[in-house]
Design goal:
By secondary structure, the chain is mainly alpha-helical. The protein is built from seven helices and six strands.
Length: 224
Amino acid sequence: MELTPHYETTITCIHCKEDFPTAKLRSKFVRVKKHESDFQPVYVNPDVNGIYYNVFVCEHCGFSFTEDFSRYFVPGTEQIIQSQIVERFVRRSYNGERTVFQALEAYKLALVCGNLKKEKNVVLAGLAMRIAWLYRSLDNEGQELRFMKMSRDYYINSYTTGDYSSTQMSEFRVRYMIGELSRRIGDNEEATRSFSRILEQQSTCLEPQIITMTKEQWLIMREE
């Protein structure tokens, strides 16, 4: 039997605690050709897109989440999720191979759930950014810009509150994302401020890739 890129696994919903099946990709099939300047992965085979499967949509209650969501619910949020998500959810399964449109649905559900749950800004920023990437793949510039700005604003809030600490995102990476997303949406004032701050503090940065990328995007912005 030929091995397929997709396989089924079981996830436990962090809201209703019920188990449900979801599709994932075998890592051997996910090959990245390059990354764009906002870290969007470009895959060798566009049909095997790892981004499509990051969101888990519970088929029982509709709560949608990623591995980045915390298991903790702020008091009162579960009741809000019950009324805003669970009671309105039309039961359906997102198991199996997903299209870009199903992936968009899943991410938008996760973004709504994340907001109701009061997830960290850095997590919400990542969701909005991936929605922007999906719209980019559809050449929908208007929606891409909309969600890039949303992601940028979440990153600003994350930087201000420091809620990126204890995650895989460093201060320099968050600041870079603010600068690069600002550049892409045409907010050169914020982009300049962010890139300048990174370069002023580059001697303390432990991520040389971020410094290199900042210099590259700074030059691109100056030439535009």
